[in-house]
Amino acid sequence: GKPSAPNAPWPQPQMLNASSDYVYIDPNFFIIYSNLKNCDIIDQALERYKPIFFPPKISLQSPSSFDDSRVLISVLIHIRSRTCAVYPELRDDQSYNITIEDSYGKIIAENVWGALNGLETFSQLLFITKDNYLATNASISIHDWPRFPYRGVLLDTARHFLPVPILKQHLDTMAYNKFNVFHWHITDDQSWPFVSKTFPQLSAKGAYSPDHVYTPADVQDIITHARLRGIRTIPEFDTPGHVAALGRAFPEFLTDCYNGTVPRQAIYGVHAAREILDPTNPEVYEFMKALLQEVKYTFKYEPYIHLGMDEVYPACWLSNPYIRKFLEENNMFNSTDLMTYYSSKILEINRSIGAKSMVWQDVWDDGVKLPPGTVIEIWKDTTLVPESQPWSYYLSKATSEGYDAVLASPFYLNMIEYGKYNTNDSVMNLEFFKWYNIDLFANFTGDQAARERLVGGEAALWAEFVDGTNTLSRLWPRASAVAERLWSSIDVTNPEDAQFRLDVHRCRMLRRGIPAAPILNGYCGAYEVGMKQSMVNEPVFSHLT
Amino acid sequence: GKPSAPNAPWPQPQMLNASSDYVYIDPNFFIIYSNLKNCDIIDQALERYKPIFFPPKISLQSPSSFDDSRVLISVLIHIRSRTCAVYPELRDDQSYNITIEDSYGKIIAENVWGALNGLETFSQLLFITKDNYLATNASISIHDWPRFPYRGVLLDTARHFLPVPILKQHLDTMAYNKFNVFHWHITDDQSWPFVSKTFPQLSAKGAYSPDHVYTPADVQDIITHARLRGIRTIPEFDTPGHVAALGRAFPEFLTDCYNGTVPRQAIYGVHAAREILDPTNPEVYEFMKALLQEVKYTFKYEPYIHLGMDEVYPACWLSNPYIRKFLEENNMFNSTDLMTYYSSKILEINRSIGAKSMVWQDVWDDGVKLPPGTVIEIWKDTTLVPESQPWSYYLSKATSEGYDAVLASPFYLNMIEYGKYNTNDSVMNLEFFKWYNIDLFANFTGDQAARERLVGGEAALWAEFVDGTNTLSRLWPRASAVAERLWSSIDVTNPEDAQFRLDVHRCRMLRRGIPAAPILNGYCGAYEVGMKQSMVNEPVFSHLT
């Protein structure tokens, strides 16, 4: 592999030309400004990038002794639409151009989201020389746009709670990697941290503790933190499975699973005692309508609610005599009929309240007809679920049937492996290679229209074994490999070069207070965690209040 | 598995009887004192345990309203030998007894090291009730001793540098788990952070940067921090392989590896260009003598120096025409003869300067006769090195030949795996089971004397992919599983119960400022990382100056 420049951007821009000459930046005489005034997205971004341009604890030198022509004086952010925006959408133009010539730079974008992408790339072009001068190359010309419009990360705040400051650092890091969708798997069997105004008993009884909750203010705080960084927040309220915690508040909504004639019995490996909604209970639908209305109101800018609908255990439903009776009385023949009954009602409720639906593939696997515009998230694969098909099969099928699809299967980053090295000139992190070499269109059989419905991918960190102690260091920079795969050209596939660029990017994240883990032997600088200049826990980056 | 009491100790004591009655502790009226005065080991331990007994950020209640008989007033640490000590030794008595009856407790030990073990267990017996009272059971009777005298953890500070505050937190955590040997793999191919007074060029040229070094003061700081916690520090200066960083200061000491007739050529998978000492250069031995003398002087209390002697690539030596000539002239026939030549000289140097030798098994595999008293560390196994034997074979053989042996093979904790769950009533962390179920005497064929020479085991965290960002959360509580295996009775083997005790112990570490990762679904308390009461980065626990 080829060692990287200290300011190589990540993910790799689509088109980049840079001369090897440098210009320097005077921390006291540098101006970055926009043609769009009084727009919170831009105004707050410019504030936010100050400590990123000029890292705390590093005393930058002034290049005053240099010739003026070698100093970058100003950067203009030019937003062609001249309009602010509130919340990013899937099909927004996310592209931008950067030019730096001599003393002047320009970031040009159609809208504020492209401008944010440009600003992030510009921040990465800056580097600190050994003598502590802030520098970049000049001239530079970049023309950049994402390969896929949907680039997500799933965090699971139910198996372990993630405090708001950690979620915010995570969102910051998503922006540093040009991810643009935060899929918030907020509830599950283990806990229900979401404080509902309509049903306060959900978190009162379903959260781990009164401290392990997201209040309405917390949720708005997260949504705002994300949208200011060009990130959508898609909440997932997974039903009818994965609801044991919901059942602590509403025990009557759960199905009693039987072992033979004995109710509320777990059969390990088949089903738990009580973990699935009872679709025969009409109150369940009233509850779900009220809950989803609150969710829609809470996540008001986001068109989609993720409804889960994965991993429903038919053996539980069918073990229950009341459910068997219901099937008989309603001319249903199996659990798939019952799942169709439940999910059709919920999908219709979601439609009726003005929300679009996103679902895990299971409900579609079951043959349920989904409303137009439903996004199907593909997570199955032969490696995860032996009896399933390869993910490429599902992607081709779903998009060919007219659904938008998002690929998660190969990006389950909770499935850690030791990344052994295999060459002598560098430690090659094979784990990183694994995701980096995924081509989402491998074995794709759909037509051009279907290709466009494959909207992107999502890295998932299921939280069986992570919480505030290790979420950031486990996810980053591993998720960065997925970020480049989803953003950059399909031609950017040389992991032996990429590992060095990713190593530079990892040091960059560390400089921004994110404890991103190492992927190669080596070191970053005197700002590593545990050293005096460490930026981790630096107030400006830590969001602790 | 059976859920654990909130004050279940880890590792499990050999004999423990506790009633289910509680006594309470008044934070303002509790005395713990020793019969041994003016002993730094004890005096500093008592200081150190104050914030452990009474955690910062938790306002404990005073049990003043209770009946006096339900308050624990004082604990006496009774050290039978009535003598202080400076540094722990392998065969020290490490046992202790604890009794708590009504208002009085006693920790009885033969020496200060047993007393430290008792103090640690006592600290674990305390728990905080939901109403914020500090409590423990009474009566309690514990009689405890370790199954193996050597319970080590290896950290590698060469592939990535670990700042002193991180090393100190690691040593604290070792003490919380009754580990008693810190194996400091201080140098390797990647860097040489050890500042030598004799050869300052070693770190000047071999360290990653002038900030990535351990000064003589740092080293003494670490040694003292460890010994005050009953932990030996065994430094490893690995030769003749793993010395590329040494070669940056002394290029003339390295063997040029050839590819055919071309010198300084790497053949990937066979050898690097230059990474092994040249044993034909007489200056190498003068250098090694001076270096080892300095090491012996620096680590002055510790009898052993670990000399490494692992993974020497014969193909490199034999590729070099000057080495082949040397073999011919000295009636040597192969690389093993040369390894014998080198290692015999080094082992003799080490003996001559008054140090005992510890080595990786490779040199012994090569048939080199080792001086009496040499400790052989077993790291090979069929799972790591396909052409090798199972580790039990090596343990039996080495101890039967009269050597002390330490087992590392199954405890390479850098080799992470995803610990999938497999039952419905709890997430079972299979990765943790893997180490927990290791019986060091499985398939052991030696006699009783040989059994006693199997002195213990060592968890190793090779540092390809860890540094200050993730060392503590990756190692803990995974290494705790090894700790219990090395300390507790062979009868303590039920991992389904142990996981709940370990979960309690993990929360305990978190309460002491160590970002130990979760191993089960669930939560600890309002002191998790990212929450306001988090103890991580609390000055008293973080050792940042």
Automatic annotation (TrEMBL), chains A, B:
GO molecular function terms attached to this record: beta-N-acetylhexosaminidase activity
SUPFAM superfamilies reported for this sequence: (Trans)glycosidases, beta-N-acetylhexosaminidase-like domain
Similarity-based family: Belongs to the glycosyl hydrolase 20 family.
Disulphide-bonded residues: C39-C84, C257-C316, C507-C524
Biological process according to GO: carbohydrate metabolic process; ganglioside catabolic process; glycosaminoglycan metabolic process
Name this protein carries in UniProt: beta-N-acetylhexosaminidase
Organism placement in taxonomy: Eukaryota, Metazoa, Spiralia, Gnathifera, Rotifera
Domain of life: Eukaryota
Entries under Pfam families matching the protein: Glyco_hydro_20, Glycohydro_20b2
Enzyme category, top tier: hydrolase
Keyword Glycoprotein: yes
Entry-linked InterPro entries: Beta_hexosaminidase_sua/sub, GH, Glyco_hydro_20_cat, Hex-like_dom2, HEX_eukaryotic_N
Keywords recorded for this protein, A-Z: Disulfide bond, Glycoprotein, Glycosidase, Hydrolase, Signal
PANTHER family the UniProt entry points to: BETA-HEXOSAMINIDASE, BETA-HEXOSAMINIDASE A
Origin species: Adineta ricciae (Rotifer)
A single cellular component GO annotation: lysosome
EC number: 3.2.1.52
Beta-hexosaminidase eukaryotic type N-terminal domain boundaries: 9-125
Glycoside hydrolase family 20 catalytic domain ranges (all copies): 148-489
Catalytically driven reaction(s): Hydrolysis of terminal non-reducing N-acetyl-D-hexosamine residues in N-acetyl-beta-D-hexosaminides
CDD domains tied to this protein: GH20_HexA_HexB-like (cd06562)
Active site: E311
